[in-house]
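Hey, can you fold this one?
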Amino acid sequence: MPKIFVIEDDESILSSLKKELRKWQYQVKEVSDWQNIMQEFSNFAADLVLMDITLPTYDGFYWTARIRNISTVPIIFMSAAEMDPNAVRAIATGADDYITKPFSSAVLISKIQAILRRVSSEADLQEKVITVKDCQLNVLTNSLSCAGQTVRLTPTEGIMMKLLLLNLNKTISKERLMQNIWQGGLFITENALNVNLSRLRNKLDVVALKENLITERGHGYRLVMQ
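Sure. Predicted structure:
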């Protein structure tokens, strides 16, 4: 039974979320102590986090950054704010997806299923580590090692990196990236993809690959290695 940690303080929304998620056989935990969110998150060992933006202590961007310091668990932002620029900021902070309130339960469940399906498919791979040239990507931990350095990627960054490595020196279209990352891209804009690629490019600087990620304007992206 997949476990979902809900960081939301609106009681009516929280009640509705718990009812719907449990109907789909998800194990749900809400925040019980707003001063102890990180400990509750760690103890619960969630498979996915639903994150509101406006919260009693700090905001969702802050807690996402804290979670990203210790975990690559998928995070879906929920907000009554407009899609942009909060969607861009959420993804730049480390979120994997974004949904705007009010939203239908069907859309939320489809997003959750898509992300968990993607994470599960990665875990089921017989080949746990993808090795290309002198680089290795662990598809379970999303840890990328190259040039003697290691950087941890989020699940979304991990799937992008896997596609780039498996298609080395080939251009991957934006449409293909969005299809693989978001299982059809429900309500996902190209801007969200661009922010994710920008975030990945910054992390590639740690392993000396930043300049190897080429943007083919009007076509897509290409990872170049000799």
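DSSP finds eight helices and twelve strands in the chain. Let me know if you want another pass with a different chain boundary.
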